[in-house]
Amino acid sequence: MPERRMIIILIISILLTAGYVTLMLLYRRGWAMQPLFTPGDSLEPKTKVSIIIPARNEEHNIAAVVQSALLQNYPTHLLEIIVVDDHSDDNTAAIVNAFNDERVKCIRLAEHVVNDDKIVAFKKLGLSIGIAQSKGELIVTTDADCVASPNWIANIVSIYEAQRPVMIVAPVNFTTDGSLVQIFQSIDFMSMQGITGAAHRLNMGNMSNGANLAFSREAYNAVDGYKGIDHLASGDDYLLMMKLKQKFPAGIAYLKSQDAIVHTAPQPDWAGFLQQRIRWASKSGKYDDNTLTSVLLLVYIFNFSFLVLIIAGFVNSNYWLLALVMLLIKTIAELVYLFPVARFFNKQKQLRYYLFLQPLHILYIILAGFLGFFGVYRWKGRKVK
Question: Which CATH superfamily is domain 37-267 in?
Answer without folding.
Answer: Spore Coat Polysaccharide Biosynthesis Protein SpsA; Chain A (3.90.550.10)
